Amino acid sequence: MSPETIARWQFGITTVYHFFFVPVTLALSMIVAIFQTMWVKTGDEKFLRMTKFYGKLFLINFAMGVVTGIVQEFQFGMNWSEYSRFVGDIFGAPLALEALLAFFLESTFLGLWIFGWDRLPKKVHLATIWLAAIGTNLSAIFILAANSWMQSPVGATYVACDANGFGPNGGDCNRAIMTDFGAVLTNPVSLVTFPHVILSAWLTAGGLVAAISGWHLSKLKGKAKAERDIDTHRWAAKFGAWVLILAGVGVIVTGDIQGKIMTEVQPMKMAAAEALYTTEGGGTACADFSVLTIGSLDGKQAVKPVIAVPCLLSFLATGDFHGKVQGINDLTTAYNGGQLIQPDNALQKAYASELKKLGITDWAPNIPVSYWTFRLMMGLGFIGMAIGAWMLWVMRKGQLPKAGPVWNTLMYAAVLAPLFAISFGWIFTEMGRQPWLVAGVLPTASGVSPGVSAGEVLFTCITYTLVYGALAVVAVGLFNKYVRLGLPEVSEPKVLTDDEAPLTFAY
Amino acid sequence: MLLLATDPNFLQTIWFILIAVLWIGYLILEGFDYGVAMLLPILAKNEKEKRVMVNTIGPVWDGNQVWLLTAGGATFAAFPGWYATLFSGLYIPLFLILMGLIIRGVAFEYRAKNPETQWRNAFDWMATIGSFVVALVFGVGFANFVIGLPINAKHIYVGGFWGLFTPFALLGGIVLVVLFAFHGAIYLSLKTKGDIRVRARALANPLGLAAIGGGAIFLLWFQLAYPAGGIIGWILLVLAAAGLASAWFFIGKGREGIAFISSSAAIAVVAVMIFVRMFPNLGFDNSLAQGHPLNVVTAASTDSTLTLMLIAAVVFVPIVLGYTTWGYTRFRKRIGVENMPNEAPAAAHAG
């Protein structure tokens, strides 16, 4: 295997793994902040117990997100040095801003929150969890702006080398440079991706809270002296179920907008998502959306849909049920003929003559991967929402769910379906961008580190996988342990004045 | 030193300085975190004392680590060429650092989640070994920046993995480990009370002597073999030595605050020496670069990106420093074994 292939696997493994923890961090931090706010407002012990219970689970998850996130920041330089060199003028800024504006905020205030129960006044302590949660969400703005720029490289142009191999003022050359930071931050892809990702994080965290409390409810049913716990878990389970449904609606709406923007800036990705080889729709005709297909998707034979929704693809791509959706073969012909992916993109225009020298002929991503991840993303998301609705029905009018394999399976699914929906969504987004690192500009093969051998990448890739695997066992084990321990008994936190007294909390 | 085709402009120079400042923040703050974790198996006599040690850094270590992430991110944004060549060139060392950061990063949070002795010992060793590896590799790395990492005209590191392990670089690694252990012992005597404080102070004595001895050899070797800054380099060397000596002297006298300021200042001065040496070639040896050197000019982002980032830094660095300082003052009280809450199974999940 080439270093490029292994480096891609490494990015895939480490990023998908990292993103198991990110959505929970993004939304559960906010949910814990909401619980704590309700406790401060109402004084109801129920909310304090929920804060502490879900706060602990949040921290187990957060630790994993932090340590796997460091790898992400270093990985660009380690495995993708030529990418980093090419895009650093634009791509580096959001990463630096993320550390400066977001990471400091979340780490500092999370430390204050964890250890601050008996050192900070109630409202100041409440502010720390909000600031930590805001920090995590700010980081999403920056990193998604960076990623969106790779999907649609706005606000930039290309600097070629002069005869001596330098750029203007003796600086570097053969790279993209920023012309408009505002355009990078207000990239339409970024503006729609941010709510889509944040809402999908809420979908995940909502599923988590609904499932954990839902599971406890079924166990508590019929137990003596369990009213307090039942009352608390019922509140949390309903809250989680509502979050599942409402966030799900938001994910659908933003996803729909995102699909249309994607069709505009990366038409090949939409064609790949449907395995649409020839252009369809336009005029009175329309493009159907196949829910499932059998047979190969390699374009050598016609795709055989098992279930197809008439004209839906036209609508998903263009917002018009008769909109024209370009097919893979037609796009390939156009690109081979010199057409740009985004004809009015300054960077793609400026880099076109360089790109021509590389002689790219394969302009499409892996079609089966694009096709199936797109459907898995949507399908699993819908399953999550459906479980939320089912839970609300089961818990209506004070009823409790019945413990058993069916309910347990549903509870596991409520956690895992949204989580994997997000993973498939990202695999679709990133693999659907291929063969590019920067869409229409820098091919993936051009970005890899030339000084790093296949053996080195393979060694690190295997080690990451093993260490991450071991950590997963530990983290999931701890998570399950604290889920099972259930709601803690709490006492009203007080600011300690006696220096000899034991702290409320210590590692 | 190769002459630059173009002199560095104000923005490139200020960004080089800012990155040095971020590294100094990281080395001082995570320096004592690493020191505390490395001293865990040496200093603590029982589980409660271990907990005291871990809890002195518990609320702050994660924020301290962000200095490193910010230094990395700022290097990417301000000097993409530096980031690309360095991170791909020192591939295996950086990988070791990442592994160290991963295993120590989960250790503090997870050790507390289960009172079993075996579980705790495992995570304590992860914290200790992870901190040791990170300190050692950074020491070797910075010594190599002093020597200069050889690169070719395509700005690819050509020195090989084993080329990093010169005697000078190995000494750099050992000195940084000892220096952090000394700094950590001072921090512990500043933040704890009772028996553990007495022992931390006692341990600081031999650690200080080792840091002074090792540091003196390293810095003299540095100045004689790889001179930087002329007379300024020698002044810095004297200042660094004075800082270490002052830290050692005052910790012996029980003046922990002054000792901590002294060891922090010594770390900062050594870092300044190294960064003076790294200007303008960023720690690279350009003799094989065939007229295409990698330096603060050729590695830099455009002036508009540097300006934009400078505005962000001017606005947000003071804010970060402000709330970080506030956070530290919330945990200014010393802690001792009597402050450790009991760990009955039920209490294990309180808080």
Can you put this structure into words, describing what you see?
The complex is a heterodimer of chains A (about 500) and B (about 350). Chain A has about 500 residues and is mainly α. Chain A has one domain (about 5-270, about 360-485). In chain A, about 65% of the residues lie in helices and about 5% in strands. Chain A has helices spanning about 5-40, 45-80, 80-115, 120-150, 180-185, 190-220, 225-265, 265-275, 310-320, 330-335, 345-360, 365-395, 405-430, 455-485, and strands at about 155-160, 175-180, 290-295, 305-310, 435-440, 440-445. The longest helix of chain A has about 40 residues, at about 5-40. Chain B has about 350 residues and is mainly α. Chain B has one domain. Chain B contains eleven helices and two strands, in the order ααααααβααααβα. The longest helix of chain B has about 35 residues, at about 10-45. The N and C termini of chain B lie far apart (about 60 Å).
Low-confidence runs of at least 5 consecutive residues of chain B = 345-351
Largest interface comes to: A-B, 89 and 89 residues
- What does the largest sheet of chain A look like? 2 strands, antiparallel
Class per helix and strand makeup of chain B: mainly alpha
Tell me roughly what share of residues is in helical segments of chain B: over 70%
User: Ends of chain A: how far apart?
Assistant: 45 Å
In total, how many domains does the architecture of chain B comprise?
Answer: 1
Structural class computed from helices and strand pairing of chain A = mainly alpha
For the CA atoms, what is the radius of gyration of chain B?
21 Å
In one word, what is the shape of chain B? globular
Which descriptors would you attach to this protein?
heterodimer; A: 507 residues; mainly alpha; two-stranded antiparallel ribbon; 14 helices; 67% helix; 5% strand; globular; B: 351 residues; two-stranded parallel sheet; 11 helices; 1% strand
